[in-house]
Amino acid sequence: MLVNRAATLERIDDADALWDATVATLASAGFDHAIYLTVSSDFTAPFLRCTAPEVYAQRPPEQDPFLRYACESYRILPLGAEFIDAHPYVTDTERSFIESAAEAGMRSCLGIPMRLRGSDRFGGFIVGTGRDKTSFMEKVFPRAEEIRLFCLLVHRRFEELTTQNATPVPETSKNGEFSKFLIAPELPEPFEMLSPREREIVYLLAQGRSRQETAELCTISVHTVSDYAKSAYRKLGVNNRAQVAALIYQGDAAS
Description:
The protein is of the alpha+beta class. It is built from eleven helices and five strands, in the order ααββαβαββααααααα. The protein has a five-stranded antiparallel sheet with strand order 2-1-5-4-3.
């Protein structure tokens, strides 16, 4: 699974090396191109990594329609020229931009918005293929949640590295320095009663991560993971990770 590779990427201490490893991992999963783009809350100071730089030859990254439309929620969206008719609100200029991206190899894409809790930046990943709409929905979209978790973990690591101007984060300071940066996306209403860290823990556990893996990804102890999980389960009225996963995905189906 992609998330198994993410644990290795967590140990990379250079943003460029992290991007290279991310691209290689996504390529092994069948993606031809990837874009990682974040901006400040006022759409300034873009941070861009892109395997197809020609996409932004005529339009600056901070004007990418992904930021304007897809990031209004945390829902994973099928994007690209193959899905353009599902987004009638795009302007003619934006349509031209999307069609030029298809010429660069990003014909069908997953738009994966994200924002770490505690960070004032937002954006996410656009991972693209040359597939047609039917093939994409049959072969790629069913893996969307797995890909989102992988991208969330990479996003968190990018935030850590770039917050420190790409200076490696000492082991002794990781937990204190970045405990505010959490990877759980927006979750259904019942999860609002949880603390931010509880949401992160139960989200990772519901994705199939072990308590040891969750502890390593969150730079906390296994004992602390267990305490957070027990507290979250009690608040949610559930007994295990399977019931948490059911709450997450039932919420997605209802939205």
